[in-house]
Design brief:
By secondary structure, the chain is of the alpha/beta class. Helices cover 44% and strands 16% of the residues. It contains 9 helices and 6 strands, in the order βαβααβααβαββααα. Helix 1 crosses helix 7 and helix 1 crosses helix 8. The two termini are 31 Å apart. The protein binds flavin mononucleotide. The site of flavin mononucleotide has 19 residues, from helix 1 and strand 4.
Length: 217
């Protein structure tokens, strides 16, 4: 099976989580795709303090803070694809997702040993704002920036442009549910992500052979 990990960063079980569920359901319409959703609610993720201990100690995890959910990060390392959903906070991703991303600084160690570690993985984004044009696209850009820093293939599409963009009208799950146009972008990005993950995973042997033959820059 091909594993897509959904990551939802809202501190509430509300519009973002509902939208992410819908996106993951759409990904599952593609054969062989299985999904799992994790949410950052109540995870109390600490902030990166740039001590560089993870780099010096060649760790896969943050070593300064050790009281956080490492199993969740192990899932991140193992997944074939990602669907990350954030509420829009001041036209950007929220603090919970920023912390989640920054605690992944140790991926640097992994990529030093294997630069291509993330190259056969795909990623897509969903953002949910209270206002129709409240920064959904700028929020998605931040999520895409995270993918770029890892060499994860970023997925978009004509039916959805840069991802799922939802207008919740600040009305929790019901608000997202009633945004038909937004939900159609969520379904489109979820399914496009599933198709891309399927395609890349079916070419794994050819891809691996190519990387072995190339001298990587
Ligand atoms: C601190 C904060 C900042 C926000 N900033 C924006 C914003 O810039 N643009 C916007 O459209 N909505 C903004 N909102 C509204 C949320 O994006 C919106 O209510 C969203 O649906 C929350 O997702 P949730 O229901 O999954 O928690 C903000 C909400 C909070 C709490």
């Amino acid at each position: 099976m091909i594993k897509i990990l959904g990551i939802g960063s809202s501190p509430r079980k509300a519009a973002t989580e509902y939208s992410l569920e819908q996106g993951l359901k759409a990904a599952e319409t593609v054969p062989e795709i299985e999904t799992e959703m994790i949410v950052l609610r109540n995870k109390n993720l600490p902030h990166c303090i740039h001590c560089d201990r993870c780099i010096k100690e060649d760790s896969r995890f943050c070593v300064y803070h050790d009281n956080y959910d490492k199993e969740m990060y192990e899932k991140f390392y193992k997944a074939d694809g990602y669907l990350i959903a954030s509420p829009v906070y001041t036209m950007n991703i929220n603090a919970q997702l920023t912390s989640f991303f920054n605690l992944l600084r140790p991926t640097w160690n992994v990529m030093q040993k294997n630069p291509a570690y993330f190259w056969d993985k795909v990623g897509a984004a969903i953002s949910v704002g209270g206002t129709r044009h409240g920064g959904q696209e700028t929020t998605i850009n931040s999520i895409h920036g995270f993918y770029y820093t890892h060499g994860i293939h970023v997925i978009g599409g004509a039916e959805t442009y840069n991802g799922g963009t939802v207008w919740s009208k600040d009305n929790l799950k019901e608000g997202a549910q009633s945004d038909e146009e937004g939900m159609s972008t969520v379904r489109a990005i979820g399914q496009r992500l599933g198709v891309a993950a399927y395609q890349l995973n079916h070419d794994k042997e050819t891809n691996q052979k190519l990387l072995e033959e190339l001298e990587l820059y």
